[in-house]
Amino acid sequence: MTRPTPLWGRLARVPAAFPPAGGVEVVVSPTSELCPAGWVGAVALGDAALVTVPDAHTATVVRDALAHLSVEALVDGVSVRAVLPVAATLGPAALAYVSPGRFRPADAGAPAVERLPAGHAELGRLEESAGDEDAVEAALDEITSPAFVVRRQGRVVAAAGYRAWPSRTAHHSVLTAPAERGRGLARVAGSAAVAHALAAGLLPQWRARPPASRRVAASLGFAELGSQLSMELTADGGRPAYRRHP
Questions:
Q1: pLDDT per position as a tens digit, 35-53
Q2: How far apart are CA 10 and CA 222, in angstroms?
Q3: In b/e form, how buried is each residue of 86-98, taking b as 16+ CB within 10 angstroms?
Q4: Backbone phi, then psi, for 89, in 5-degree steps?
Q5: pTM for the full model?
Q6: Beta bridge partners of 204
Q7: Measured distance CA(63)–CA(208) in Å, rounded
Q8: Of the candidates 196, 125, 133, 132, which has an alpha carbon nearest to the alpha carbon of residue 160?
Q9: Taking the CB of residue 177, how many other CB atoms lie within 10 A of it?
Q10: Rounded Cα–Cα distance for residues 46 and 54 (Å)
Q11: Are 200 and 126 a contacting pair, CB within 8 Å?
Q12: What is the 3-state secondary structure (H, E, C) of 153-211?
C-alpha cells in the first residue's frame, strides 16, 4: 500500500516532505496541523518521519535531540521525554489505512445500519453517554460524511463517519455506547463508513490510541503504517513554553 505521505506534507502547512531515503525532516511551521498550536508534531511512516516545530529556536533544540533517536522512538512518549523537556503529550496514535483490495466488510448478517446527517442530535446523545474522553477521541462532531448508525431498542448505540481531509483522505470516527461494547457494533458501523469512503474514491484513515479501536480497524483490513505524537515543550523551571491549543 502506498504511504499517505502527501497528506501529512500538506498538513504541515509549509513546504515539507518525508525524507525519501529515510530519517527525520524537521521544519518550522507555526500553523502546522500535525499538532496543537505552539507544540511539536511528529508523524512517522515506515523509516521516515516529518516533524513540525513552532519557531527556529525550537527547531535547533529538536533537531539536536532527535538525532539520537530512531524514527520509531521519536513517536514514543517515553523515548522523547528522555531527550526533550516535555510538559505534555498527545498520543502516540497509530495511523492505519485500507485499500479496496484489503477491505473486509462486516458480515451480511450484521445488524442493520441507518444513515443520519452529520450533526444529528442523536449523535450528540451518543457522545454524552460515552463521556468526554471517548467523545473527544472519536470526534463524531467533526465528520463531514453521513453518520452510519446502529440502533438497539430505538436508540443509537454505535455510530461512524469520516471527515474529508486533504489528499482525498477520509479520516474516520467511530463511537459505541459503553453498555453496548464488545458486541461488534463498532465494526458494523465502521464498515459502512469505510465502504462509503472507498466508493467515493477516498483513502480511509483510522487514527487510534485505544487498543480496542485498533482491533476494530484491523478487523476491517486496515494496516498500521505509522504513528503520530504531539509534544508540548517546557521552558526553564518546567513552566510550559507554549499555550495549549483551545
A1: 999 999 999 999 999 999 9
A2: 22
A3: bbebbbbbbbbbb
A4: -135, 155
A5: 0.90
A6: 170
A7: 27
A8: 196
A9: 21
A10: 24
A11: no
A12: CCEEEEEEEEEEECCCEEEEEEEECHHHCCCCHHHHHHHHHHHHHHHCCCEEEEEECCH
